[in-house]
Amino acid sequence: MGTTPASLVDILHRRASNEPDRLAYRFLMDGEYEEVVITYQELDRRARSIGSFLQQFTKAGDRALLLFPPGLDFIAAYFGCLYARIIAVPAYPPHNARLEKSIHLTRRIVDDARPALALISSSLFSAINSLDSVKDIFADTRLVAIDNIETNDWCEKWREQKIGTNEIAFLQYTSGSTTTPRGVMVTHGNLLHNLELIERSFGQSSQSHAVIWLPPYHDMGLVGGILQPLFSGYPVTLMPHLMFLQRPYRWLAAISRFQSTTSGGPNFAYDLCVRKIKPEQRASLDLSSWEVAFNGAEPVYYKSLDQFADYFGPCGFRREAFLPCYGLAESTLLVSGGPKSKLPEIKCLENSPLEQNQVSFCDESTTNKRVLVGCGHYQPDLHIKIVDPVTLKPSPANEVGEIWLRGPSVASGYWNKSSDTKLTFNAHFSDTGEGPFLRTGDLGFVQDGELFIAGRMKSLIISEGKNHYPHDIERTVEESNEAIKPGSCAVFSVNNFSAEQVIVIVELAHDDKWNQDEIRKDIRNSISACHDLKVNDIRIIAPGKIPRTTSGKIKHHLCKENYVDGLFNETILI
What we know:
By secondary structure, the protein is α/β, with parallel strands linked by helices.
C-alpha cells in the first residue's frame, strides 16, 4: 500500500484514487435481491461531503451519535465523522413509530457521550421533532439528517486534516450482555493494528469476499464486517441482522450466490441454520467457496461445529473452514483466531479438577468431562497472560486464570469513567509490578499457543467451593427436554446472604402441549446428574421475554436484575 497509512481516511483515499470503480459495499435491503451498492470513489465523495458539512459545526474531538438502521447511510456517516476528525458514536437506532418506548438506550448514551451532533435520517428527524419528550433528550445535540446533505455542494469544500494515531476514532459502546454499556475509546492506532491482526489471522486479501449480517453497532459487525474489508481491499455484501434472524437461509444463500470466502457470527447463528434451513433449501446452496467461517462473541460448542459441518457438508462446506476466535471491544475486536484452513482444536478436560481451576486433559471416553474448543492462536505483538484473579500473579501453565492483555490493539479506556478505566485497563502483577494490562474478566488457559476460554468471572457460579460455568449448565438445560427453545435459557446465581442460589430461566417453544412439572423435573435431574448442582428456582417464561442484545446474545446481568426485581413473575406460563 506504499507509505504506512495513519488512518482509514488515508486508506479510503488511496482506494478511491487507485480503484475508483471497484465495489466497496453491497447492501441487501431485504436480505435477498433488493440491493444498493457503492464504490470506493462514491464512498470517498460521500464521506468528504458529510465530513465537510460537519467541519462547519464541530471541532476535532467532538462526538457525533450515529442513529441509522444497517445500510450504506450508516457507513457514509461513519466515514464522514473520520473525515471531520470527530468521534463517531455508533448506537442502535430507536424505532420511529415507537420512539418513547425505544429511546431509553439512546438516552443513556447521550447522557454519557454528550455528543455535539446526532446524524440521522430525515424520517427519524421528523419523528423526534414531533415529540417534545423525545426532543428534550437532544436539547444540547444538533440533529443532522444526512440524506439532506448534497454531495456536489459540499464535497469540494472538505479540508483535509492530519489525524494522529492516538486520536479517538470512535466510542464502541459495549453490548451490555454482562454489564451496563460503557463507551470504549478506540484510537486510530488501535483500529489499524487490529485490522492488520484480523487480516493475518484470517488470511484475508484483495481476492476475498465477505457476507456479513452482524449489526454495525457492535465491534464484530463494525470492525470485522465493515472496516476490515475496506482495510484489506475486498468487497463485502451486507444484510440487516433482522433479515437473517427471521430467515437464516438468507445468510447462506448470499454466501452461495456471491461465492463468498469469508463470513461468520456467534455460535447461535450456526445452530439456527441447522434448525431452520430445510433439506430442500440446503439442496440449492453451494458453500464450496467458504474458506473462513469465523465463530466468536459467545462460547463455541464442538457439537455446533459438528452438526453444522455434517448438515451442510453435502453442499460443499468444509470442516476446516471453521475459525473459532476470541475478542472483546476493549481490545478493539480480535484477540486470537486462526490460522486459516486449520481444523479447530478440541480438548477434553476432567470436570472435577476444572472445578478447582486445574487443567487436566482426558480422552473422549471419560464420563465426567467438559469439552472445550480452542479460540485460535494469538499474534506475537499482542501479549496474553493467564493470571490468578485473586493473587494477581501469573498462573501456572496447568491452571485456569483470568486473561490479561497488552498490545497496540488494547483501547485507551472507557469514556468519562476514570475509575472503571483504572480498574480494567491498568492492571499490574502483584509480585513484579509488570504492566499495565487489560483485565478481560474472562477465564481461560493457553495450550501450545492456543487460547481456550472457560467462562466469565462475573457469571461464574461458585457452589460448595466448586466453579460452575453458566453456559455449560445452559447447554445441559437445553438438552434436557424438547420443549425448551434452543438458545433461550439463562442460568445465573443470586446470593441470599448464606449461600449462592442457582436460578434457571427458560423460554419454551411455541406450543401449549408441554407439561411444566415434567420440564422442571427434567431440568433439575439433568443439572444434578451432569453438574452435581442443586437448582433453587426455575422460571418458565413466554418466548421472546429473555432480554438480548441486538446481535442476539442473552443479557445475563439484566436477567438477574429482572429476576431480583420480580419482573419474570409476570410472564410465568400457567
